[in-house]
Amino acid sequence: xxxxxxxxxxxxxxxxxxxxxxxxxxxxxxxxxxxxxxxxxxxxxxxxxxxxxxxxxxxxxxxxxxxxxxxxxxxxxxxxxxxxxxxxxxxxxxxxxxxxxxxxxxxxxxxxxxxxxxxxxxxxxxxxxxxxxxxxxxxxxxxxxxxxxxxxxxxxxxxxxxxxxxxxxxxxxxxxxxxxxxxxxxxxxxxxxxxxxxxxxxxxxxxxxxxxxxxxxxxxxxxxxxxxxxxxxxxxxxxxxxxxxxxxxxxxxxxxxxxxxxxxxxxxxxxxxxxxxxxxxxxxxxxxxxxxxxxxxxxxxxxxxxxxxxxxxxxxxxxxxxxxxxxxxxxxxxxxxxxxxxxxxxxxxxxxxxxxxxxxxxxxxxxxxxxxxxxxxxxxxxxxxxxxxxxxxxxxxxxxxxxxxxxxxxxxxxxxxxxxx
Length: 421
Ligand code: GDP
Ligand code: IMO
Ligand code: MG
Fold this sequence. Notes:
Elements: E1 2-7, H1 15-22, E2 28-31, E3 40-44, E4 47-51, E5 64-67, E6 72-73, H2 75-85, E7 96-99, E8 103-104, H3 107-120, H4 132-140, H5 155-170, H6 180-194, E9 198-200, H7 202-211, E10 216-219, H8 244-250, E11 257-265, E12 268-270, H9 283-291, E13 304-306, E14 308-309, H10 310-320, E15 324-328, E16 339-347, E17 350-352, E18 364-371, H11 389-402, E19 406-410, E20 418-420
Parallel strand pairs: 1-10, 1-11, 2-5, 2-10, 5-7, 6-8, 7-9, 11-15, 14-16, 15-19
Antiparallel strand pairs: 3-4, 12-13, 16-17, 16-18, 19-20
The protein binds guanosine-5'-diphosphate, 6-O-phosphoryl inosine monophosphate and magnesium ion.
């Protein structure tokens, strides 16, 4: 069976930390979508490591790690990541596999991302500018280059053909930067390195491992509210971040999916533009950002902060069929009281518990339930019984509202700061 772990909010829920922990009982960790827009933070022997393209199972020495076909790879970022991790993980290359069908991010994809964002002005998505949107556009537009293409003798011709197309597109954006020219040589150097990776026919590779009884965990990137179909469109990323993305992003049949772990913070964050109904643009929001060190792992941008949004969360749980709920960053709320969570929205004078279609333009005000805070540090708690009663009441409310059981509570950044229920 293949289990899934994914973010239920707008990303940065703590997926990296939890995958690193869960990887102890899996044979293979596989990324199925997204690309270097992701930033998954792990603490290994107290040292902070941020992974962008490489799956978060690399620090469990028995684990194989696959970058699946649904991922878009920037060879330059991947090379830099490999160089950074090898000293910590000398056998990395033996345990890293890449699907030949994963698409490549070209220097001109990054240039197009930047040009498109700047042309949007105030309506910009707040993209990480890693070239994600343009690379997925070329994939669905049937123009893309794939990892397998780098092994072809006419790779350079294919590259030039696509580059010319991009240059034509870039001409529509007056003043578009030409920095991409400086990114070309590092790109080719990195492609050269990629040829030595274990490039596999990943769907067959996974099938063989599944038949051999191996345990596989699919690691999501971004979060459900950034899903291209179900997120707060158009302020989303360009891939399917929900459980359905695993089947197409790895080439596994739905019947092989087992548990679906869904991760949420005890509150909400969002980085980049777009609707965020429970956002706190006040001192409480500032205090959450400070307590949670809410700054992007990929771009360093401050994350917008707000109360937990149970309307959005229930939607995400429904879309992916979450079987196990994981709550992270609970310790961040130690000093907050009261604590609020949105249980409905008022949209144009009507109250709803469903995600509205028009979330971007219609005025939405959250309807809150209020809870007493626990007002004591919970990062030292080692089991559920030690947790304060008020915290347990908050958890029980969340479980009942979502009709999902909490399996893990994370109460700190450390690998061992995780309460298994
Ligand atoms: P990801 O993209 O979902 O992997 O999450 P990020 O790594 O972008 O952001 C999560 C941040 O929260 C990281 O800095 C983690 O070290 C940190 N983190 C994860 N779990 C906890 C927790 O339970 N408590 C605290 N205080 N920090 C946490
Ligand atoms: P992880 O895996 C948080 C956001 C960007 C922007 C929007 C589109 O670390 O949770 P893109 O670069 O994909 O075109 O940006 O999506 N975004 C993320 N926000 N965590 C992420 O990944 C994100 N990846 C993209 O900020 O709003
Ligand atoms: Mg992140």
